[in-house]
Amino acid sequence: GRARLFTINGASMIENYTWTATGGTFQESGNANVSGSGLSTVTFVAGQIAGVFSVSVADSHGNTISRGIVINGPVLSISVNPLTIPADGSSKSSITATVKDSTGANVPDGTVVTFTVTALGNIDFTDIDNLTPGDQQSFTTSTADGVATAVLTSGDTAGPVTVVATSGAGSASTVVNLTVGVAGSLSLSADPFYIVADGNST
Hints:
Elements: E1 2-3, E2 5-6, E3 12-13, E4 18-21, E5 24-26, E6 40-41, E7 44-46, E8 51-58, E9 64-71, E10 75-81, E11 84-86, E12 92-100, E13 112-119, E14 138-142, E15 147-153, E16 159-167, E17 170-179
Parallel strand pairs: 11-17
Antiparallel strand pairs: 1-6, 2-3, 4-8, 5-7, 8-9, 10-12, 12-15, 13-14, 13-16, 16-17
């Protein structure tokens, strides 16, 4: 942000300014970087919550001006491989979340991503992180080159399982289907093929 106070004749004045903001902080103090022409400049650093916030500056004469600022959250996309796995208690599906900033660039390495799983009814999923034994409904990890991964291990009940990836104010979701195994083939034969309709023949 920039601020400058002028006299009634249009001449700039040297002034101490107080900067305030919501949704973030400033790199400098309230009256830092005041040039000889009376120009005060600060750098706003966005916080981790997306939304519409404000930046305000006040001088020692009671003059205040505010401007709105929009902070965009990270943009997530999520992919699953495979989308369908058997409900056998051991099959796995790889979940990949790609996280970009508002400009489309990868977020910095180490950006936190949380994967959570939910299911309708009595669907039993066993694990989401593939690291800690037992049922895990959530798993928190961090990005490398804009990517975070988790592994879903199926439970023993067929049905859809929703996986949600969240980072800051951004989120994306997908569905993994747990299915009952299908027999590869089925055959039927009779021996003998013909029998007498006497109520006794087999």
